[in-house]
Design a protein that fits this description.
This protein is an all-alpha fold and 236 residues long. It has a two-stranded antiparallel ribbon with strand order 1-2. Helix 5 packs across helix 7, helix 5 packs across helix 8 and helix 6 packs antiparallel against helix 7. The chain starts with a helix and ends with a helix.
Length: 236
């Protein structure tokens, strides 16, 4: 599929709304959303050339919001600039995966500890709902990506933990986290099923108010996710 067609497909499937031409700020946010989700979900594969001119034409916006969106993606380390000035979707690498998962392990441990102190019955119900969504999606009953509910599960925990500093750090690096998360869940049925079980076990430990068990299970989940990513990276 051509890059232009792929971007249009992402636009239609993920957003389904028209990008306004009259508001450059709004247009920039929509362009940024389309490209970021495309990269995070690995629909725009590593090495894809992101031409400012082509993106402007395909998305029917001026080049200014495209240029601003690409600048932010570069700042967020989702795209690289080659020596000739062209911008490409950043490669997935073992080094970055190891770095990201090392940071994620520390942050997730803090999140699960603080979230366990704030949990309400409503929070538990919302977490369980995401686990159920993962199972339903995995069964093929509804169309979707299991990674979405996994992403929502963790983001719920971030919200429940209610640590503004942690949330600021996570917001800055979350797109890179999520990129490897979707890469991990796309590696095969075996990893997807295991990831669902891991989230359910974390939920059950939280429901039992066993914070030490929940922390152990979260560390195990992060480790398994990292190993899945590393194995997949070796095959590309």
């Amino acid at each position: 599929m051509a890059v232009e067609d792929n971007i249009v497909s992402i636009y239609e499937q993920s957003l389904g709304i028209e990008i306004p031409n009259t508001n450059q700020v709004t247009a920039r946010m929509h362009v940024l959303g389309i490209l970021k989700e495309g990269i995070v979900r690995n629909r725009l594969v590593p090495g894809t050339w992101l031409s400012e001119e082509h993106l402007s034409s395909v998305l029917n916006v001026s080049r200014t919001p495209v240029r601003e969106a690409l600048l932010e993606l570069h700042t967020n380390q989702l795209i690289d600039r080659a020596n000739n000035g062209r911008l490409y979707v950043k490669q997935l690498t073992v080094k970055e995966a190891l770095d990201i998962y090392s940071v994620r392990e520390v942050l997730e441990d803090l999140v699960i500890t603080q979230a366990s102190q704030n949990l309400t019955e409503v929070d538990l119900a919302r977490l369980m709902m995401e686990v159920e969504k993962m199972r339903i999606t995995d069964s093929g009953t509804v169309k979707g990506d299991v990674g979405d509910s996994g992403r929502n599960f963790h983001e719920l925990l971030y919200s429940i933990a209610n640590n503004a500093v942690t949330q600021d750090i996570l917001q800055m690096i979350q797109p890179r986290f999520n990129r490897y998360r979707y890469f991990s869940t796309s590696t095969g049925k075996k990893r997807t099923s295991k990831a669902i079980s891991e989230h359910e076990e974390i939920y059950l430990a939280l429901r039992e108010r066993d914070v030490n068990k929940a922390r152990h299970l979260m560390r195990e989940h992060i480790y398994n996710s990292r190993q899945s990513v590393l194995q997949a990276l070796q095959s590309i």
